[in-house]
Design brief:
The protein is of the alpha/beta class and about 350 residues long. It folds into 2 domains: about 70 residues, Herpes Virus-1 (2-Layer Sandwich); about 270 residues, Ribonuclease Inhibitor (Leucine-rich repeat, LRR (right-handed beta-alpha superhelix), Alpha-Beta Horseshoe), CATH 3.80.10. α9 links the parallel β14 and β15. The longest helix is centred in the last third of the chain and has 12 residues. The radius of gyration is 20 Å and the shape is globular.
Length: about 350
């Protein structure tokens, strides 16, 4: 029986929704899609989800009727960052951060490509601390400009960049050592060597990213257990997304969780080789885990996994499997109470 649509937050409080079929989307994108279609964009199953009339910005928050307002105070509650919008042209937001840096947000711009990004990079240069540009229209040429002109980056999202490869990632790690959040999902050329560069190459090519807190390699199908083992050096990592990395097995999850005890969010959706052994490794090694997404891991018994985790992990706030959708501390506590009884 398909579950009801579930609202939840991800990556710096971006609002998301999980449809009946289990596929997840940014809430703003899902709302716009279902106004004209009654099927999931991925699998085409019929969905029963009513899109609200409220409009959202790229972070899934409500916006006023005038989307081009400037100098509007807002905040990123996840990172306690306060900012003021400086300008908005071509649906690109330029925001002044409280620390003196600049955020460039291209997520709502259909024109985001190498040419558009080049102009903003050259204009703001070293002031850029956060760059959000998940677009299939940008190439590694843009990433090279980023690490050349923006050495103070702490947040970078270049998801869907089909030409981004491990050598480009190596240079990015060398020249932007302050990176704390790196999103390179659905970059088809990302492989184990790229993860090695991020963690610190054993051959001395890079020193890694010592402050890395978030790594998203969702849909990077060349990533294997070997790459996950290299991430053992990222001791500050709190969020790891390896969903739809279909070559990952229990061994990779066990090795990475054994060293990353500070992990709070783990997403392994669609990793079809994972079994209950991976779940037991997570329970034993990551006591402070708050969120686990294991939807479409068909060899994991969802109810059994949720029960074991709820009994053993007191910090747990969200569990998503094929059989169980627990979103929110109250839902988790409710299941915990039923198990205790």
């Amino acid at each position: 029986m398909p579950h009801e649509p579930v609202m939840f937050t991800a990556r710096n409080d971006i609002a998301c929704v999980a449809l009946h079929c289990g596929h997840t989307f940014h809430k703003a994108c899902a709302d716009q899609w279902v106004k004209q279609n009654r099927t999931c964009p991925n699998c085409r199953q019929e969905v029963h989800y009513e899109a609200p009339s409220t409009s959202y910005d790229s972070y899934g928050r409500d916006v006023a009727t005038d989307p081009n307002r400037q100098h509007t105070p807002t905040s990123d509650t996840h990172n306690n960052v306060h900012w003021t919008q400086r300008e908005r042209t071509n649906n690109v937001r330029v925001v002044d951060l409280s620390g003196g840096g600049v955020l460039l947000d291209f997520t709502m711009s259909p024109l985001a490509d190498d040419g558009l990004l080049k102009g903003y990079i050259h204009k703001y240069g070293a002031l850029v601390e956060r760059l959000d540009c998940p677009s299939a229209r940008i190439t590694k040429r843009s990433v090279k400009r980023v690490y050349t002109y923006c050495p103070n980056l702490t947040y970078l999202d270049v998801s869907h960049c089909g030409t981004l490869n491990w050598s480009c990632v190596t240079q990015l790690v060398k020249r932007c050592p302050r990176l704390q959040h790196l999103h390179i999902s659905y970059c088809s050329l990302i492989n184990d060597k790229a993860l090695g560069a991020i963690a610190g190459s054993p051959f001395g090519e890079t020193q890694g990213l010592p402050q890395l807190r978030t790594l998203d390699v969702t849909g990077c199908n060349q990533v294997t257990d070997k790459g996950l083992r290299m991430l053992q050096k990222c001791h500050r990592l709190e969020t790891l997304r390896v969903s739809f990395c279909t070559r990952i097995t229990d061994q990779g999850v066990s090795s990475v969780t054994a060293s990353l005890q500070s992990l709070k969010t783990l997403k392994v959706r669609g990793c079809k080789h994972l079994t209950m052994h991976a779940v037991r490794s997570i329970i034993n090694n990551v006591p402070y885990l708050e969120k686990l997404d294991a939807v479409a891991c068909y060899r994991i018994q969802g109810m059994e996994a949720a029960g074991q985790m709820v009994r053993s992990m007191m910090c747990l706030k969200e569990v998503l499997t094929n059989d169980v959708i627990l979103s929110g501390a109250q839902s988790v506590q409710g299941l915990r109470n039923r198990i205790v009884r």
